[in-house]
Write a structure and sequence with these properties.
By secondary structure, this protein is an alpha/beta fold. The protein contains 9 helices and 9 strands. Strands 1, 2, 3, 4, 5, 6, 7, 8 and 9 form a 9-stranded mixed β-sheet that branches. The N and C termini lie far apart (about 50 Å). Keywords: Methyltransferase, Transferase.
């Protein structure tokens, strides 16, 4: 795909996919866990779960049958609209999706048995407040070394100049300060392959990996060069560096 075609491709992709990342074709090799499967294994049929930064809700909906009820929140109203549409398509009745700020949770204390948060900021103190005694928090976050070849190609990017591990240490300290005990973490750095040009373009346009991506025509030329350099038989190669923290209140 030529650089001048990327903007037209994005218009088509946005019209078809909206904020629905389930349409992105990508495989990972070396991922040490599946985050929502890890959460699901801790669920009981009597539990209520809060999913922070739920996005289009696909992941939360996939474990709804393991719970009594789940609530997904996101700052983006368009994300919540997508989640509601996905809920209707999946015919899931024990879920609700609400636009809300994770720093100011509008729930009573001790409402949830579990809190999950994948790739979104959260307040450790607020999570502790809405969890029951002995409740558990699960979070997966993007490490500073994520998408290292992409950020190098563009000369800018999310957490480009930050030391790997700073986010992990900050969250662990905040969780302990909020009263969580048995705080455990794990990390991995996996190879990630995007099947099509438009899959990688969708990622860049809908995430802050490369801030302001597409505002300058030069970005499309850099992306074209990157795709040509890193295209392999399995797809366009980059890396997915992740950390997971599990904490009990």
């Amino acid at each position: 795909m030529k650089s001048q075609s990327y903007e037209h491709f994005y218009d088509a992709i946005g019209a078809i996919n909206g904020w629905d990342f389930s349409q992105v074709r990508c495989i990972s090799e070396g991922a040490a866990w599946d985050f929502y499967d890890t959460v699901r294994k801790a669920c009981r049929k009597t539990d209520c779960l809060l999913d922070i930064g739920t996005g289009g809700g696909e992941n939360a909906l996939s474990i709804a049958s393991s719970l009594a009820f789940l609530i997904g929140i996101d700052l983006s109203r368009s994300m919540i609209e997508t989640a509601i549409r996905n809920q209707r398509r999946a015919s899931v009745t024990n879920a609700r999706f609400i636009p809300m700020d994770a720093d100011r949770l509008e729930f009573p204390a001790g409402l949830f048995n579990l809190v999950s948060c994948r790739h979104a900021p959260f307040s450790a103190a607020e999570a502790a407040r809405v969890l029951t005694d002995d409740g558990m928090l699960f979070t997966q976050q993007v490490r500073e070394s994520d998408k290292s070849n992409l950020k190098k190609a563009f000369g800018r990017g999310q957490a480009l100049d930050q030391e790997d591990g700073a986010l992990r240490d900050r969250y662990i300290a905040e969780l302990r300060e909020a009263g969580f005990r048995d705080v455990h973490y794990a990390e991995y750095d996996a190879d990630e392959y995007y099947e099509r040009d438009e899959d990688l373009l969708f990622l860049l346009k809908h995430t802050p990996i490369i801030p302001g991506f597409g505002e300058d025509e030069q970005d499309y030329r850099i992306l074209e060069q990157f795709i040509n350099e890193f295209r392999e038989a399995r797809g366009i190669r980059t890396n997915a560096a992740r950390l997971m923290i599990i904490a009990r209140k």
